[in-house]
Amino acid sequence: MARKHRPTGDWVVDDLLGTAANVPWDALKAIVGGQSAVDEPRLDINGFEGAEILLESYGFDHGRAAHRAEMETLRRQALLFLQEELLGPDLALQLPDWLAAETDVRQLMLLASRRPTDDHQHWACAVLRVMHTIVHCHSYFNQRFGDEIREQILRRFEPHVRGHGESLRLGDGTLAVPLTQFEVKHVKPWRSVTMKLLHKPENVAADIFDRIGIRFVTKERFDALLVMRYLRSHYVVLFANVKPSRSRNTLIDLDKLREDQVMLDQLRASGRLTNAQYLAALRECVREMPYPEEPARLYNPFSAVQYHSIQFTCRQLIRIVEQDATMLSGAFPAVGRAAVTGGEVRFFFPYEVQILDQASWEVSRSGLAAHEVYKKRQRAAVRKRVLGPLLPR
Prior knowledge:
With 393 residues, the protein is an alpha+beta fold. 46% of the residues lie in helices and 12% in strands. It has three domains: 11-137, no CATH class; 140-251 and 298-383, no CATH class; 254-289, no CATH class. The protein contains 15 helices and eight strands.
């Protein structure tokens, strides 16, 4: 039976009408102030019972051996991540022996609540931050049905990609779009997902949308629009399932192109441009226009300004056929029984599409936009967020 946590006294009186030092300001910010729990400088736990109550609320029953084993696996993964991803030869900082030896998560929570703070408190917080993130980086659907999900999504794209090398193209006939690259992103390992989550303010797995990724590289920027037209007109991508807040365009200024097209429409209507000349003029307009600026809401401080692309996230309805529908119903309580009928489970799964031209693709592979430089910037930010006061000054 779940324990009921009954705070002693009236917390409003105790905390707000007492002294400011008694108010759980960090917890309040994490709930209503837009601050991630990962950015809290300390916990506020009193005793093993308090730690067990918090764990139970989180979803782990310390009294169950299976849950303790799961927490121990998370603790070991967190230590491995700290040692191999954040600490290193360029950082004069090592995991202390006592931290590796402390296997009781409750004790780590008490250390993370210590006042005044010290290195023990900072290290305990670092481990718990990573453990929390690893919990969120696991997707049950991806872990159990990953291969089938990937196959169903790729099945939408691969039949439309023809040829290879110089003859690589999207589609056939007069509407075919020449491509220089067609790439399918490999499945992200848990360490990469953890690193990505640790640099995201939200720090939750629902915000990882590129576990599966498709990339088209065209010869010119204008061809990226033709790829978009093809994907839409052939229902390879269903616009109704695109997540609007994830759409990004730093490749083509669509407002400027629309203005140019209105002018060219008039010239074509008056007979001063043939259809071929009209298309060539549109292509030239795109060649000459500057890149659009990144919208503030989509700015990623770890991306280099030289990287330009069209990116969007689509959600596909995945259907998995299983024999034991009863088992599936119990496995997905959050989805509900309506999602499991006739031995079939269905759910939406996100994937990311990137479209860029050859010049942008080449820039992304060199200089400031190189992937390794991107990762270096990302790692530096995650180090600061996770290790904080422990970093050498």
